[in-house]
Amino acid sequence: WEALCFCRSRTLNSGTLQRSLRVLVLLLVGAAACAARVRYTSGTQIARMDPYSNPIAASEDSYVRILSYSLVHGIYMKLLVWPLFLCYDYSMDAVPLVQSLTDARLLLPMAAYTAFFQLLLLAVTRLRAYRSARTRIAAESACIGAGFFILSFLPMTNILFPIGTLVAERLLYMPSIGFLIAIVCICYFETR
User: Fold this and answer.
1) Do the Cβ atoms of 107 and 75 come closer than 8 Å?
2) Which is the most buried residue in 66, 88, 148, 150, by most CB within 10 A?
3) What is the Cα–Cα distance from 86 to 170, expressed in whole angstroms?
4) Is there a contact between 139 and 121 (Cβ–Cβ < 8 Å)?
């Protein structure tokens, strides 16, 4: 929200400085909380990663891990858009490892990343284009929805730290809220 308020203000005044100070304090407190958690738990690694629960994290090759995790991101996006085939357990070989860039399954994450960046670009351009209060609020809502999606999806991406499960629909509850907010706001723009 504070970033959107920065976009609104055209001049540097006391309100902008107060907002900047609030954001700085929030970032410092958040970083200190994360550092305390990492220090208390001795890092972010799972001590005994079960290769059956998350076979990608147990893989020795970092190249295979990167490609396989990107496939998992594509599977999550597919579940957000089209949740037709749901599974209660994605362990073992439910998602086989991706060994090379020539694997056709990598088209799924590429399509997901492209669609998401298009959605994000559309939301930001709508934010800059509209000046009336009603359309500005809808544009800000799309950006807030996209931000909520990113912040709630990031911990389960296995980018920051490995998690104990490979794919779980239950992890999509919070990201789906932000995703739907962004989609509804973008659809609102397209119907106007």
Assistant:
1) no
2) 148
3) 11
4) no
Joined together, the tokens standing for residue 118 give: 């298009």
Residue type, 74: G
DSSP alpha helix (H) spans, the chain: 2-8, 14-40, 62-81, 107-129, 133-153, 173-191
Maximum pairwise Cα distance, the chain: 57
Measured CA to CA in angstroms, residue 103 lies from 48, 60, 99, 110, 124 at distances of 30, 19, 7, 12, 33
Tokens of 176: 């789906």
- What is the rounded CA–CA span in Å between residue 55 and residue 167? 11
The token pair at 128 is 């800059």
Residue linked to tokens 């858009």: 81
Q: What is the pLDDT of residue 43?
A: 64
Candidate ranges 17-21, 59-63, 101-105, 164-168; pick with highest mean pLDDT: 101-105
What burial class does residue 153 get, using C-beta atoms within 10 Å of its C-beta: 0-12 exposed, 13-18 middle, 19+ buried?
Answer: buried
Q: pLDDT tens-digit profile of 100-147?
A: 999 999 999 999 999 989 988 888 887 777 667 777 777 788 888 888
Question: What pLDDT shows up at residue 12?
Answer: 60
Residue with tokens 């706001």: 185
pLDDT score at 49: 65
Check residue 93 and report its DSSP letter: T
